């Protein structure tokens, strides 16, 4: 059993997310808020993060931070000294659990052993590496700057630095991608000394270069049948090589689950700091303004940098919580769920019953889990649950 699953709970367990928006270049499919990798922007961000940290301190009373995630962007570009400084703020308050998972996103082209050793010494104990594919032609289509050889080297360099908890991201449904290219990528990734893997199908999002080209791209993305074959073959091959599927898009060796992401699926409260960062706190979602200058300016004036808030109604929130927690392969213990969040509504019971009858869900001893059919069509299951109303 992973250490964090057996930790005694005496305080409110929470997570922290820091959005570090810097990239050497923006990928054509990326819809996140990112900025060029420039020192003046970094200095501005650090000022804003420190001001925001001081602003949220009252919320941390009685809390224990069990995961920290530096996302972006490419957070490894921020620098060892800055990451160490942020972690020192948290340690100073005495809220950081001794077994906290502290993750840093990086890209292969920005990784080397001395840098990763520095991050390890600063407190980073998990690295998430954006590889996406091992095929040179597809890397060019995605506008990625690393080579497949650099991706191998990056994983080895992270491991050599003493960071054993290594996750990689892969992508399928890339324009012009063939099934054989997907097979090759899977063959390469299972050889690596990784503990965790996430893979996703490429979705074309608004405000991206791909979105502007979507009419042309629709003609060259894998067809639905090939896409489904990629998905099922990928799951089969990863599990054959010891990467067990524990969530719709995530696989782990030796139960090295992403503690941070599990928190998202189980409604653990989290606070997001930085421009465009989301938070989930006291059953309310809110987001910081996606503009570094205005984010810092508001904090200098002691104003909130939040520009979006959403407080879901009780029933709407309950439906969403159930749909999201079903992403986990272990399923949802309905008795525990109801103790934590409240009793299922009549329409939720009816929807769950219908999904069981149509073989999307299974129920065993009050535990609701996705069937094989449900795993393959999770979006359908989630839409049915979220959309049901009394």
TrEMBL record:
Q: Which cofactor does it need?
A: [4Fe-4S] cluster
Residues of the signal peptide: none
GO:BP terms for this protein? Answer: porphyrin-containing compound biosynthetic process
Annotated Radical SAM core domain ranges read 8-244
PANTHER family named among the record's database cross-references: COPROPORPHYRINIGEN III OXIDASE, RADICAL S-ADENOSYL METHIONINE DOMAIN-CONTAINING PROTEIN 1, MITOCHONDRIAL
Superkingdom of the source species: Bacteria
Instruction: Output the Gene Ontology cellular-component terms.
Output: cytoplasm
What SUPFAM superfamilies does the record tag this protein with?
Radical SAM enzymes
Q: Cite the GO molecular-function annotations of the record.
A: 4 iron, 4 sulfur cluster binding; coproporphyrinogen oxidase activity; metal ion binding
Q: Which InterPro entries does the annotation name?
A: Aldolase_TIM (IPR013785), Coproporphyrinogen-III_oxidase (IPR034505), Elp3/MiaA/NifB-like_rSAM (IPR006638), HemN_C (IPR010723), HemW-like (IPR004559), rSAM (IPR007197), rSAM_sf (IPR058240)
Physiological role: Probably acts as a heme chaperone, transferring heme to an unknown acceptor. Binds one molecule of heme per monomer, possibly covalently. Binds 1 [4Fe-4S] cluster. The cluster is coordinated with 3 cysteines and an exchangeable S-adenosyl-L-methionine.
What family is reported?
Belongs to the anaerobic coproporphyrinogen-III oxidase family. HemW subfamily.
Q: This chain belongs to which protein, by name?
A: Heme chaperone HemW
Q: What organism does the record attribute this protein to?
A: Parachlamydia acanthamoebae
Localisation: Cytoplasm
A Pfam family reported for this protein in Swiss-Prot or TrEMBL? HemN_C
Do you know which SMART domains this protein is assigned to?
A: Elp3
Alphabetical keyword list:
4Fe-4S, Chaperone, Cytoplasm, Heme, Iron, Iron-sulfur, Metal-binding, Oxidoreductase, S-adenosyl-L-methionine
Coarse class of the protein's main subcellular location: cytoplasm
């Amino acid at each position: 059993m992973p250490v964090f699953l057996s930790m005694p709970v005496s305080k409110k367990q929470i997570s922290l997310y820091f959005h570090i928006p810097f990239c050497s270049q923006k990928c054509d499919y990326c819809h996140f808020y990112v900025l060029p990798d420039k020192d003046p922007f970094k200095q501005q961000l650090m000022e804003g993060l420190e001001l925001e940290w001081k602003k949220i301190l009252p919320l941390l009373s009685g809390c224990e931070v069990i995961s920290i995630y530096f996302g972006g962007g490419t957070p490894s570009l921020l620098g060892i000294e800055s990451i160490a400084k942020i972690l020192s703020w948290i340690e100073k308050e005495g809220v950081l659990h001794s077994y906290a998972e502290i993750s840093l996103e990086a890209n292969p082209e920005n990784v080397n052993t001395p840098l990763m050793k520095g991050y390890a010494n600063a407190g980073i104990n998990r690295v998430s590496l954006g590889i996406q594919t091992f095929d040179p032609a597809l890397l060019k289509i995605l506008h990625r700057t690393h080579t497949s050889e650099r991706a191998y080297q990056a994983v080895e360099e992270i491991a050599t630095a003493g960071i054993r908890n290594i996750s990689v991201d892969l992508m399928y449904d890339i324009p012009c991608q063939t099934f054989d290219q997907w097979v090759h990528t899977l063959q390469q990734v299972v050889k690596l000394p990784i503990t965790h893997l996430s893979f996703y199908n490429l979705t074309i999002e608004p405000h991206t270069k791909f979105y502007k080209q979507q009419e042309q791209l629709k003609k060259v993305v894998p067809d639905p049948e090939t896409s489904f074959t990629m998905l099922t073959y990928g799951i089969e091959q990863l599990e054959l090589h010891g990467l067990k599927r524990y969530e719709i898009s995530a696989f782990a060796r030796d139960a090295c689950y992403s503690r941070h992401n599990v928190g998202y699926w189980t409604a653990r409260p989290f606070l997001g700091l930085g421009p465009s960062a989301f938070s989930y706190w006291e059953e309310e979602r809110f987001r910081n303004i996606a503009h570094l200058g205005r984010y810092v300016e508001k904090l200098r004036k002691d104003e909130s940098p939040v520009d979006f808030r959403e407080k879901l109604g009780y029933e709407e929130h309950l439906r969403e919580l159930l749909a999201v927690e079903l992403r986990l392969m272990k399923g949802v213990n309905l008795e525990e769920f109801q103790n934590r969040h409240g009793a299922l509504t009549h329409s939720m019971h009816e929807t769950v019953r219908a999904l069981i009858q149509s073989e999307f869900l299974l129920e065993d001893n009050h535990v609701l889990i996705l069937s094989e059919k449900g795993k393959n069509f999770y979006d359908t299951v989630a839409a049915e649950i979220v959309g049901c109303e009394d």
